[in-house]
Design goal:
201 residues, mainly beta, 3 helices, 11% helix
Amino acid sequence: MNFFPPDPEMPDAEDEASGPTQPPWWAPPEDELPALLAATEIIATTAHIAVALIGVGVYREGVEFRLERRLRRNGLTNKEWNEWTSTFMENWSPASSPADRMRFGLVLGDGERVFADYTFAGGTDPHVEPAGHTLARRGGAGGGGSGVFAAQDSLWLWPAPPEGPIELVMQWPEFGIDERRIFLDGSAIRALASQARPLWD
């Protein structure tokens, strides 16, 4: 009698290839090339922090808002710099309050408000298709050195927004950034959706 149980049977390649796909409200499609809206705007700045919109990727069924944030040392001591970079990279600490975290939201052209956190924005079960729009925040690469740190984020809005202006709202109380807003042309974004292209036939 063997001590170790037998290994489970591995699914064959055909079964793996036909496995479940990522729901479209989670993230931009992986097989599509977006049309790009050349929209760049500073959302917020302080003596140490800058947050900016650096572009918008428009897919057939959703929109990705691309963001960049930077932290500059600007006279901070070594101890302060280490604490600030940890907070900037959103490493949890006992001193942090959830109410002080960085948050994003949108107001769509029809007045609907959607909010983004790292948790699923559409409800309690991320596998159940939501009834309205959702906004999923996705973190990207980040890092830096002794003088500047940078990080990238994206916000995935699904499905495509209605006609009218889009208001992007953010706050980061932990760094002294209260509610800041910029406005985008939702109609121009919708017009670009038809220019998104599949990567493969």
